[in-house]
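Protein modeling request. Please complete all fields; requests missing the sequence field cannot be processed.
Requester role: graduate student
Desired output: 3D structure, token encoding
Chains: 1
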Amino acid sequence: LLFVAAQAEQMAPRPNATVVYGKYFSIATNGSRSSECNTYYLWLPAGDGPHPVVAYWHGGGFLGGSAISGPEGGCGEMCELVVSSGMAYASMDYRLDGIAYYYCEDGTTSCERPTAAEFVDVDEASGALALVPGSALSAFAPHVGRQEFAAQYAWDAAAALESLAARDDVDGEYVGFLGGSAGGFAMHYLSWIWHALPGNAAKATPRAICYTDAQLLYPVDNALDVVWTMWTDAVGDEAALADYIPAETCYETVGNVACVDGDYEVDLCNETWHRATMAAFCDGDAFERATLGDLRRAQVWPTDTAFRRALQKLWYPAQTMQAYRDHYETPFYIYVDNYMNQSAPGNFPHHAVAGHAYVEAAATAGLRYVVYYTDYLGMSPSAVSDRRFEVAQDTMVGTVDCVYNYASNFDFLRDSRVAATRRASAAERVAFFALALDRPVPRSSTDDDRLLECFVRLSRCPTSFWTSCLVVLALLLPLAAWGFLRRAKRRREPQSDATCDATNPLAAEHDPREVDFTELGPIDLRQQDADAVEQPLASERAVC
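Delivered output (544 residues):
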């Protein structure tokens, strides 16, 4: 089995192209240089191009992750489903906060004295980016934290998309974005700001965003007033901070994690700001007393410089998406899936509160939206949707049955490409892209087609794999024969009247199904949060 698993890993499709799209590179402690930060990987479907493309932007809190790691990095399930559905798949890398980057004046990576990456300025009115000659981004001193370095990420995202869309085998008129967590920053910047800049609409046309563990506003760590306002709008000013984050992670959600954890090449910490914030909201009794309204009023982003005002253009997609009709002639589709709704670490930046906020933001902007979000503590009755689905969802504590609220302003579920898939599944997301990018029904949306794809992948196996399989089969045949004879003998013996209990719901296959939960009554998420520590799967309808 270990051998088979190793061979299966080797069967993962290799990219059709590995493209270095930018000039920047990092330097390791041993002196080696890597352009991984300015690279993307492209997988193409069969047939002649150009092909519609889905570009994946990895998460990692602006500090980690890569195009070839993580849930969708490399060519995993989503990549294979996308490619088998006739669309190209690109996995994109970009520069991370906390790492020093360099470039060579001659355009190589081998110069003797590389130059430090420049500071990226942002135009306050348009969000256009510009390199500042003679500057060094690594010398920038943040007022609060790491997301003040976000302009370098936006610069890379624009360069990567322009390179991808210019390829002959990619149709830049049909671009979809896929991502999770911090990956959403690139998707929003490219869709609402980059595309609106003069000349860019002729280079590429983004048509869809599919976003899991979605974030609507930044910064989400060392969160500031606009993010806290989104929360107080959802649960009220008097909601206790302790109900939504654990005390042990207050230093990263409310304070600045870079001031406590990590050894970074670039200084991401304003120690004065961090200490004042910790004393006011995280230390001792201050954490227990703090309310979300206190944070909304106190943690205000200053707008005393042009650059600080311009950062708001990058940080607030809920606002920038409102002007989408000014620069798009085609409908824009957005799909959001946020299942996290508790106070455990990692929940706050990807919370169902943000998922629910997407409904209003997308509706006001006129986008065609599909939003899944779970119930959360303090949720108003009006936030409970008319349609709810129970879905087996993979979470950080295992697979649990999530009860999703579902909101959409178009007939998403009636589309033939969507109807055959499971709710909130990878297949449904691929069907979403097929709809938005005007593609046929994904071939992998049925069990028969999944089986066919499995055989296609097996056909790629080397001869050594099949030889080993035959050896293992020869060893197992005697054991199988012995088991068959033993089973046949037992069948001839007298049987008791006992029967198997096939009614255990946890033993049955859980298909997503629309359910009426009006009779369940309110769910105490705080109690479930406590219960989930020891028995996260104790309840058949455990909240994610």
